[in-house]
Write a sequence for this structure.
């Protein structure tokens, strides 16, 4: 294993680099030829990824300093659910007729769990009845099946999830370039270990075409 990624609140990644790559002024342990370096995408600049106005709304509600960790607030399940909720709630303003039909608890910060986002993404029923039932149970109020806002919510969830998987893929590919230089020509498969509920359980995240599965094999 040369690269590992841990997805979740407090998310980080680690890469094993040759000891020779470390600053020569730092003491070295001659027993080992590689060292694990813990890192985060923000080391390449907090503004490396272009933020949307919805990202800015989310960042304003987070503790100071978190905005410098794009892997955390763009990829972890906790923030994916909140990002979907923020985009949707601001969209409701454009469709006043929806406001009285959306559960009131939906407007509370951090009320949309990533597990609900996953149910929504997996819902293949024509009227999204599975999602309607899950949302009704979570928020303690009725949700009408075939509601137009459910379709909008699913589209938002899909977009946010795909962006998150793309950000993660970009981060892993960057670490691969650091570890191996240009894209390897030897034909060997590079294995990246990934751990985290968002990767393992959020519907479509692992399977997304944006996860870079053509570049590496995830394990």
């Amino acid at each position: 294993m040369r690269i590992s990624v841990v997805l979740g609140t407090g998310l980080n990644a680690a890469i094993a680099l040759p000891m020779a790559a470390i600053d020569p002024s730092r003491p070295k342990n001659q027993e080992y030829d590689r060292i694990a370096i813990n890192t985060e995408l923000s080391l390449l600049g907090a503004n490396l990824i272009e933020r949307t106005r919805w990202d800015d709304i989310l960042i304003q509600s987070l503790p100071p300093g978190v905005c410098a960790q794009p892997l955390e607030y763009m990829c972890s399940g906790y923030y994916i659910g909140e990002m979907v909720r923020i985009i949707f709630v601001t969209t409701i303003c454009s469709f006043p007729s929806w406001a009285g039909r959306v559960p009131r608890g939906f407007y509370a910060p951090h009320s949309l769990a990533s597990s609900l986002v996953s149910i929504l993404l997996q819902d293949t029923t024509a009227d999204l009845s599975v999602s309607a039932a899950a949302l009704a149970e979570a928020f303690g109020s009725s949700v009408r099946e075939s509601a137009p806002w459910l379709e909008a919510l699913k589209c938002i969830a899909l977009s946010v999830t795909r962006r998150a998987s793309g950000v993660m893929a970009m981060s892993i590919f960057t670490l691969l370039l650091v570890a191996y230089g240009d894209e390897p020509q030897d034909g060997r498969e590079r294995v990246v270990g990934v751990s985290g509920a968002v990767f393992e359980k959020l519907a479509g995240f692992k399977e997304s075409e944006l996860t870079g599965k053509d570049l590496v094999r995830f394990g």
